[in-house]
Amino acid sequence: MFDTHVNLHAEAYQDDLNEVLTRAREAGVTRMLAICERLDSFPRVKAIADANQDIWCSVGTHPHHAKDFTMTTAEELVEKAQDSQVVAIGETGMDLHYGYSPQEQQEASFRTHITAARETGLPLIVHTREADDLTAEILEDEHAKGAFPILLHCYTGGPDLCRRGLALGAYVSVSGILSFKSAKEVRAVIKDVPLDRVILETDCPYLTPMPYRGRRNEPAYLPYVADALAQLHDLSREEVAATCEANALNLFKRVS
User: Span 2-251: which CATH code?
Assistant: First the structure.
C-alpha cells in the first residue's frame, strides 16, 4: 500500500519516528509521501525522504500559512522540485474555515503553486475547506491556461467540486474520515467516484480511522482506510489496496 499523505515531520513523531515507520512497514505500507506544509520546513521533510528508500516528499505551503510566505515564487518551487525525491507540489489550496491567512493571500499562493505544478508536470496536492466553489473556479481557470495533474486530497467536500475536479482529470484521496459514523455525506460523494480515480492516505497524525479513532494517527492505520473504501464497493481490502496503489503510482510518476 502507498500512503500518499503523511505528516512525518510533525512534532508528534520526533521522539519515535523509527518506531512509527517500522509499524507502517509491518502493516504492509510499502511507500509513503511526506508532506511539506511550510516552505521553511522543506529541509526537514526532504531529510526524511533522503533517509528512507520508501519515502518521497512534496514541496509547498499550506493555505493556513500563505500569509507567512507571500514572497514565494513559482520559480523557487520549481527549483526545489528538481530533486528526484520531490514528487508533488503542495499541499496548497483554499481554507475559509479558520481564516488563518487572508483569502487573497491564499489565492495568490494557490495560483503560484499551480504554475509550479504546470511547469514541472508534478501533481498539485489540493486542500480545500468551506471553499468548494472558489477552489473549483481557480482550478478551472488555471487549467484553461494549461493542464496540470491534480489531487483533491483528504476529500470532504461536496459532489459539485468532486465532479468538476474529475472533469479536469483529478484524483481524489480518502482518509480515516471515510470510516467515521458521522461521515455519511462524504461516503455518498466518494461512492460515486470511479475507483480508478481514488487513492488512500492517512493524513496523520490526525483523522485516525475506526476502530482506533481517538489515538494519534500513523501510516500503520492505512489498511483501515482501505477497509472503509472496500465496504463502500463490496470489495476486499486487498482488491482496494491494489487498485489504489496502482492509481497513486500513475499519479505520482516519480515514485518507483
Answer: 3.20.20.140
